[in-house]
Specification:
The chain is mainly alpha-helical. It has 5 helices and no strands. Helix 3 crosses helix 4 and helix 3 crosses helix 5. The model has no long low-confidence stretch (mean pLDDT about 75).
Length: about 150
């Protein structure tokens, strides 16, 4: 099942590469990456959760770190929130680019660049969600289960 998911992902990247005209630089549009990062930092600042983010990230990477169940619960809910916010910002960017595409139907060069940015924005959002936030949620939930088992044994 994992290999099928990887194959579909690689097919999507290849098709996006073909649609963008074979310009690999279109995948590294710095404003799109910054949009994703700024939305994450904005949520962390608004919820004042930098410490929960850091502790959750540290707990996911280093399994020897002692973390309470409440901190793990907070980290899981924070990473889920960041996942949703990332997808929301990708959707907003996609809608903006689609509106821009409809406004520039006559000019083909603007049309292709808008099409490129409308594809790449959600791509980076999916990379963050599927490659960072959801695996962190999975790791922290697994760690929370092991904490429960240890407490039941004691």
């Amino acid at each position: 099942m994992f290999l099928i998911g990887v194959a579909i992902f690689l097919f999507g990247v290849f098709m996006s590469y073909l649609i963008t005209g074979g310009h690999l630089s279109a995948f590294v549009l710095l404003p799109l990456i910054m949009l994703q990062i700024l939305s994450i930092v904005g949520v962390l600042a608004a919820t004042r959760s930098f410490k929960v983010f850091a502790v959750g990230l540290y707990a996911a990477i280093f399994s020897k770190k002692e973390v309470s169940k409440e901190t793990l619960d907070q980290s899981v809910s924070l990473f889920r929130l960041l996942s949703k916010i990332t997808m929301l910002s990708s959707l907003i960017w996609f809608i903006y680019c689609v509106i821009h595409i409809f406004g520039s139907i006559g000019d083909m060069s603007v049309l292709l660049s808008s099409l490129t940015t409308s594809i790449v924005g959600p791509f980076w959002g999916l990379v963050l969600v599927a490659g960072v936030f959801e695996p962190l949620v999975f790791i922290l939930k697994k760690r929370r289960k092991t904490l429960r088992r240890q407490k039941q044994r004691d």
